[in-house]
């Protein structure tokens, strides 16, 4: 098929020796085929197995796509058989994720098939996709292949270029030109030999190159490669990088070199992939283990600074009776003079604890700045506000534990249990430090994923519960000094 010197479009040979597009632009009669039922329009695309035109089906009153066998191949009987086989294979299939065939014919020695006009772009131009979206796309492709396998048809050329994605995200599998009826061992169906393999080599199962008869496991291999390629934008070659969670196990089993080690059916693969998606959905947006360690380290620095700040606050608001010469007057807040000349300091500015807290927060801010810059550079600092924070459950549990410990201490003091009274302050300090750690880990993760803390009621309620017992203790200690 030659190119038009005027517009560069394809010029079919035979009766199509004139460019259809230019004929239409010049006001000439339209190019009609199929006894005038089809009016050809613009070229939509071309590949190794044909050229596709947009057309108008006057008989049915709808827009369709017409695929012509390339003129350079039309004279070769084996390729005409392949082209006809595509039409027959597609005619058996009626699935929402497979391009539908409407008709088949021949015009001036050139075979063509009339197909559903599937709009959109190829999956190849969209790679890579977000993990959940990639899994959803592969699940739809797998459903289409499972349906085709049920009709005895093996695609054998699954790749991103043969998957169409429209603006609404709908998926269409195209180009069953390499399909073959499974189980038919007649040589008339076998157009592939060990030294002449069809399809895209990186997506081809190894046994195809050896001339093995078609099997669903060939499409399973291609689907595994497609899943990895769609999620990462790279091909699983050599010692390729692992995927998160159970999705990695699904891919590695699907692309096993030995066919018997792969999934026995597409349905089995899809079942495992749906389970992996459910687990991945829970963990979506979480950091890799190594990155989580850095987040925990920064959260621990913040927790330490918060503990120092808490110590400074408690030291500052603990009432004390001191000599007037022991504190600078500017450090006292609302002092009251006693009869013996001492001052009652209800609150004051504790220099070293306060400066220690400020220094701690300075270190924490510096560490979090480096961490956030690293996330930004590696693409880990991306919005993902929907999944809840795992820290919220821990915070609520710590809040409940704080109240249990507070009640335990109060009852122990009431009943005279010294062991309870002696050790509960230590346990309470451990709990409060844990609360600060969980709080800052949650804040850092929420900022990374752009999730507002107002969407985490468990976090807020748990923190309020955890802070209530120490606040009550301080009030209980301070109120007698106010009289």
General description of the model:
The chain crosses the membrane at residues 351-371, 392-408, 420-440, 460-482. This is Serine/threonine protein kinase. ATP binds at residue 67. The protein is built from 13 helices and 18 strands. 32% of the residues are buried. Helices cover 48% and strands 14% of the residues. The chain has 4 domains: 2-116, 2-Layer Sandwich (Phosphorylase Kinase, domain 1), CATH 3.30.200; 121-283, Transferase(Phosphotransferase), domain 1, CATH 1.10.510; 288-361, no CATH class; 387-483. It is α+β, with helices and mostly antiparallel strands and 483 residues long. The longest helix is centred in the C-terminal third of the chain and has 32 residues, at 418-449. Residues 181-199 have low confidence and may be disordered. The strands form 6 sheets. The chain has a 6-stranded antiparallel beta sheet with strand order 3-4-5-6-8-7. The termini are far apart.
Count the DSSP helices.
13
**Tell me, what is the CATH class of the largest domain?**
Mainly Alpha
- What ranges have pLDDT less than 50 throughout 5 or more consecutive residues? 181-199
Strand order of the largest sheet: 3-4-5-6-8-7
CATH topological fold name of the largest domain: Transferase(Phosphotransferase), domain 1
Described by strand count, sense and barrel closure, the largest sheet is:
6 strands, antiparallel
Tell me the domain tally. Answer: 4
Rg value = 36 Å
Strand content: 5-15%
GO molecular function: protein serine/threonine kinase activity
Organism: Pendulispora albinea
Domain Protein kinase: 38-295
InterPro entries: Kinase-like_dom_sf, Prot_kinase_dom, Protein_kinase_ATP_BS, Ser/Thr_kinase_AS
